[in-house]
Amino acid sequence: MTASAQQQARRQQRIEELCAASLRAMTGHLDLHYRGRRLYQGEARLPTHAPHLRIDPGQDDFADCRAVADGIALRLLHSDASLHRQCCPKDPVERLVFELLEQLRVETRTPDVMPGMADNLLHRFERWSRDFYRSGLTEGSIGLLLYTVAQMCWSRLHARPVLEETEDYIEGTRASLVGELGTALHGLRRQRLDQAAYAEHALAIARIVGERVRAERAQTEGDDEAAVQKDEVTDAFALLLDFEDSNGDDGEIAAANTGRSKVFEDSAQAYHVFTTRFDREVAAGSLVRRALLREYRERLDQATVERGINLPRLARRLGSVLWEPRPDGWAFGEEEGRIDGRRLAQLVSSPTERRLFYREQVKLGTDCAVSLLIDCSGSMKHHIMPVTMMAESLIRALEMIGASTELLGFTTGAWNGGRTYQVWTRGGRPRRPGRLNEVCHMVFKDAEHSWRRARTDIAALLKPDLFREGIDGEAVEWACERLLARPETRRLLMVISDGCPADSATNLANDAYYLDNHLKEVVARRTREGQVEILGLGVGLDLSPFYRRCLATDMAQALDTHLFDEIVELIGGRHRR
User: Fold this and answer.
1) Same domain, yes or no: 306 and 378
2) Closest CA to 456 of 470, 472, 448, 445
3) What's the start-to-end Cα distance of the chain, in Å?
């Protein structure tokens, strides 16, 4: 992972933030947001079916991203999703054509008062057409057929000529299709305002294309080389409807890999714990010998001095997003404000006296509690020194502006289940036991102690054998409950992690994404409740599949001003609302 990859990830976050804001403004759906480069409405993911709305953030420009947002907004406003699902064919090729035609239909509903939206959509379709043609996918007969149908339907619906660059290339295929598609094409244009009537014509076109593709495949059954070529073209089209993207290529910050848990869904999203007998909450400093703690503290102090972190500047930046005006008594003898009745006699004796008023004084302050929750799973050992310095710097700066702070950590009491797993084994290994390890929640600094008093215990983060496995969902619940016990009116929880929830015993006894799905459920529920703001800080990982407000960082780089500025923006709420 390089610095350019980190910049690309941050740029993508900013683009998604802007596009989500545009979508919310156009549709009125306030729960639209992006996570992991995918659009969600609440907790339900909204797939982008039309192939020309699939983009590559690393290659396509902002105009393409904005066009996709415009296209999705029109789809949400003018397409009945239930009716569309009822009509949608099952054959993959027919489905592709039908999805494309429905998207092209709603794009004809672009308001006349929004010429910029029309320009965005035109730019996007033409760019997709050029890219598809130049990729070589039209060299096979199936690719050429599908591309020609897309051009013909778009041209008819929008009353525009087909793409000039490919007009001559598709002319022969276009002429051969006119007889079969003519009536349906006319119907598309005529019925574009009536989704149900339009769907009949779109299905007719999809059926004709599907029959041609099946006939083409049948002719190549005995020709292995031709069959391979045609399958490659068809597969390339199929990928346009595959929404489970890979989690990052070389040089990019990968997104957290997650999926659906059948066990979690079958239990009506009721998370289960096999036993809590061995769970514990512990002061982290008690887990390390005092002499070793002092040694860790010296190492941490030396590393912090070498980094030269500007704490006053960080405090000012945090104050700019957390400070709020607060009453601070009354000022008397003012020349404006409310009349002070006690000074009215002064007005009689000295008619020129103006200092007869009083007004409320206001000062900037914060009524905020911030909790940093660090994932103490095994892989975090490699990042723990810069993570600890970053966390400690945030705590010190937050204290400078009057915020309360906690530093917490979570791990497991053992590898591979420990005593909990042994009890389960002795009990006959009942099916679907739920969480099957002993959790260990650690308090490095509580809100009642200042950084100065807790600084030695914070150094316990450097002890390598504290790091085992991670059960994130329960840790987030625990940290939220601690925050809710605080008197402050604003409560923020920042989860710092480099991976997905992981416990080998639990995963083997349930399924691979059981803990992932619990974490998603916890974060979604706590976010809906609105009492705690939950942020995700990914260490070399994009945590957006779990946290709506998140930031991907590269701890291999220096803890520089830019990184802290990004964290301040995250705390201020300008990431992934």
Assistant:
1) yes
2) 445
3) 26
Q: Does residue 129 lie in a domain region?
A: yes
Query: 282's torsion region: left (phi>0), alpha (psi -120 to 50) or beta?
Result: beta
Tokens of 535: 């942020």
Mean pLDDT of 447-455: 94
Alpha helices (H) along 340-458: 344-349, 384-400, 418-426, 451-458
Angle at the Cα of 387 (from 384 to 393), degrees rounded to 5?
Answer: 135
Rounded Cα–Cα distance for residues 440 and 465 (Å):
13
Q: What is the CATH number of the domain that holds 287?
A: 3.40.50.410
**Do 89 and 158 have their domain in common?**
yes
Q: What is the number of domains present in the chain?
A: 3
pTM, two decimals, is 0.62
Residue type (1 letter), 424: W
152 and 300 inside one domain: no
Residue 372 CA to chain centroid, in angstroms?
A: 19
Contact 69, 19 (CB under 8 A): yes
Is position 372 within any domain?
yes
- Give the residue numbers spanning the domain of 137: 3-239
Mean pLDDT of the chain: 85
Mean pLDDT of 263-275: 85
Q: Mind listing the pLDDT tens digit for each residue in 166-191?
A: 999 999 999 999 889 989 999 999 99
Q: Are 273 and 434 in contact (CB under 8 A)?
A: yes
> Mind listing the pLDDT tens digit for each residue in 245-265?
434 444 456 667 777 788 888
